[in-house]
Write a structure and sequence with these properties.
The chain has helices at residues 34-50, 75-88, 108-117, 131-137, 143-155, 174-186, 204-210, 219-235, 254-260, 287-291, 303-315, 323-330, 334-337, 339-347, 364-368, 370-377; strands at 6-14, 16-17, 29-30, 56-67, 97-101, 121-127, 160-167, 191-196, 239-242, 245-247, 265-268, 273-275, 279-282, 297-300, 321-322, 351-353, 359-362. The protein is globular. The chain is built from 16 helices and 17 strands. It has a 9-stranded mixed sheet with strand order 9-10-8-7-6-5-4-1-11, sandwiched between helices. It is α/β, with parallel strands linked by helices. Helix 1 (34-50) packs parallel to helix 2.
Length: 378
């Protein structure tokens, strides 16, 4: 059975946070009462228990608890969700089990509990190692707490630790971004997600930027930050395996990769998405809607939709598009179908075709200006 004919990952969304960050447009909400969190846990367990899968579930399917801030949810509720997944047979022998955490919401005890449950990877949303920037972003932790969290995770025997950083935020400079990145790398972190800031609509950050209360770094400064990050991490032996993700050899996120390889997955909780290769089901965006059983959004995808999305997702990775796999999966010769688009992007130095003409991918230049390539195929 082909990988794209099986469920390869399980995502669980925990929408609670202590407070909402200024830049965030995810389905996350300032911490609710314990009563609400208990109701949410029961609801998500009910969704798991009632799930009927029409696809084979790979016993090694990855598990990912994201948010929001999963580490805000009390341990007893995390344990209850984990038990539901195991009882349903969705958590069997996963190759990777990740929980996202904020450095300000974990303890030695909670980290030990996560490990005991079976989590083997933790992703810290650190974003910056400058206290002034963290405060400006609306983060609840300090740089010192971030370093302490990494050490506690190691003491709890988390061997796979990932860190998220942001660049291009108001008030940041190339010097501060350099300091943050170097500080994290010195901690021996094996996986880094480094995101360029996107000012999302209807966020507090957008309003502050529009009114001039906050000023974004200039285009040249943001470009310098991007160039430094790419060059520095490669010098430190990190491999850029996706536009915003870097890892030491063998430390790539298996769960992230299943999304970029356009493989089927299940999602549970507020705003969580499930994908079977032909349609997407997205749960209600609000806690109230989810608890009150509002209907999920069902999006049926045409063959043209799935092919375009497959190319878009695959081109985000350093491996790019494998032409043989694409032909087998979609019954189409991509190189012939998109001959003109590929040649045009090649001529601009954005795309490269491997010597054996078995795959094509973004160049390093193309990684920087990926949107120019993506729009050709969408």
């Amino acid at each position: 059975m082909n990988k794209w004919e099986q469920i390869q990952g399980i995502y669980v969304h925990i929408p609670f946070c202590l407070q909402k960050c200024l830049y965030c447009d995810f389905a996350s909400f300032a911490q609710k009462s314990d009563k609400t969190m208990a109701k949410y846990t029961d609801k998500i367990c009910g969704e798991i228990n009632q799930h009927i899968s029409d696809m084979y579930i790979n016993p090694q399917a990855t598990i990912y608890f994201g948010g929001g801030t999963p580490s805000v949810l009390p341990i007893k509720y995390i344990e209850k969700i984990v038990a539901a997944l195991k009882n349903k047979g969705l958590w069997q022998k996963p190759t990777e089990v990740t929980i996202e955490a904020n450095p300000g919401t974990i303890s030695a005890e909670s980290l030990q509990a996560y490990r005991h449950m079976g989590f083997n990877r933790i992703s810290f949303g650190i974003q910056s190692m400058q206290d002034s920037e963290l405060k400006a972003m609306g983060r609840i932790h300090t740089a010192r707490e971030a370093l302490a969290a990494i050490e506690m995770a190691r003491s709890a025997e988390f061997t796979h630790i990932s860190v998220d950083l942001i660049y291009g935020y108001p008030g940041q400079t190339i010097k501060s971004v350099t300091n943050s990145l170097e500080t994290i790398v010195k901690q021996g972190i094996k996986h880094l997600s480094v995101y360029g800031l996107v000012v999302e609509e209807d966020t507090p950050l957008q309003k502050k930027v529009e009114t001039g209360e906050l000023l974004l770094p200039g285009e040249d400064d943001s470009g310098d930050m991007y160039d430094f990050i790419e060059k520095y991490l490669i010098q430190q032996q990190y491999r850029r395996y996706e536009i915003s993700n870097y890892a030491l050899e063998g430390e790539e996120s298996k769960h992230y990769l299943l999304y970029w390889q356009y493989l089927p997955y299940l999602g549970f909780g507020v705003s969580a998405c499930s994908f079977n290769g032909k349609e997407r089901k997205t749960n209600p965006y609000t806690i109230e809607g989810y608890l009150n059983e509002a209907e999920p959004l069902i999006e049926k995808l045409s063959p043209a939709d799935t092919l375009a999305e497959y190319i878009f997702m695959g081109l985000r990775t350093s491996q790019g598009i494998n032409l043989e796999i694409a032909c087998k999966r979609f019954n189409v010769d991509i190189k012939k179908r998109y001959e003109q688009e590929i040649k045009e992007c090649q001529s601009k130095g954005l795309l490269q075709v491997d010597a054996g003409e078995t795959s094509f991918s973004l160049t390093e230049f193309g990684m920087k200006f990926g949107n120019q390539v993506f729009e050709k195929f969408l």
